[in-house]
Amino acid sequence: MRWRLYSNVRSSMLHGSETWFVRKENEVALQWTEMRMVRWMCGMKLQDRVPSKGLRERLGLDDIILVLQQNRLRWYGHVLRKEDSDWVKKCIEYEVEGARPRG
Prior knowledge:
This protein is mainly alpha-helical. The protein has one domain. The protein is about 60% helix and about 0% strand. The protein has five helices and no strands. Helix 2 (about 25-40) crosses helix 3. The termini are far apart.
């Protein structure tokens, strides 16, 4: 039951992550949330001082940041294989003319 719930929450957390601009604080928030769920699934508390890596290995999970990077690379591969006339590929290769104003 817990595994199914975790799977649904994780996929919801990463929905659309292929196109996100991810800052360090976003990564930290994702890792914190994921590890809280992993500890809940294992029946551990933060006070038990069990390393996160050990819990992930116990459940056979990859780090959520690694999964995020894999999703982005998979999407980028799809874009690169598209035809040159496709609008998504044009957006990737688009160069803005002129300079931005100051400020």
